[in-house]
Amino acid sequence: MRHHLLPGFPPSVSPSSHAVEADGFVFLTGQFPRDLDDPEAPLPVGIAAQTTRTMGNLARALGALGLGLEHLVSVRVYLAAFERDYAAMNAAYAAALPEGGRPVRTCIGVTALVRGALIEVEAVARRP
User: Fold this and answer.
1) pLDDT band at 14, cuts 50/70/90?
2) What is the distance between the alpha carbons of residues 75 and 107, in angstroms, rounded to a whole number?
3) Is the pLDDT of residue 8 over 90?
């Protein structure tokens, strides 16, 4: 098992690794819509912008490990305002993923997320 702290990434908000790799699977810590290059900057406004940023952060984390969104196996999406934001999140989420190779997904409504984010996404990828 390998624990990854990704170079060029800000420290995790929680006491955790950015990713853990075991038996060809890569488990990524939850990504949320912070600016990875300016972590203290305000979060984008609205679920569409936050989803786009979050998926970009996920892609960047995968890229740092030599993987891409096409390697995703499973995704969990957490929404702070599920009923309000589900449709708009789905549109931005679908736009970020390659056609024909989408991972399985669970979407969960929660009461709050770190830094007041509207979305957090955790994922599992597999090395080819």
Assistant:
1) confident
2) 8
3) no
CB 82 within 8 A of CB 109: yes
Strand partners, 27: 20, 124
Query: What number of CA atoms fall less than 13 Å from residue 47's CA on the CB side?
Result: 20
Residue 47 φ then ψ, to 5°: -70, -35
Measuring CA to CA, which residue among 123, 49, 59, 58 is closest to residue 89?
49
Dihedral angle sign, alpha carbons of residues 57, 61, 62, 66:
positive
Distance between CA 22 and CA 49 in Å, rounded? Answer: 32
Q: List, for residues 88-101, the tens digit of each pLDDT value.
A: 999 999 999 988 88
Buried b (16+ CB within 10 A) or exposed e, 55-74: bebbbebbeebebebebbee
Q: What is the pLDDT of residues 24-77, one digit of tens each?
A: 999 999 999 999 999 999 999 999 999 999 999 999 999 999 999 999 999 999
Q: Do residues 18 and 2 touch, judged by C-beta distance below 8 A? A: no
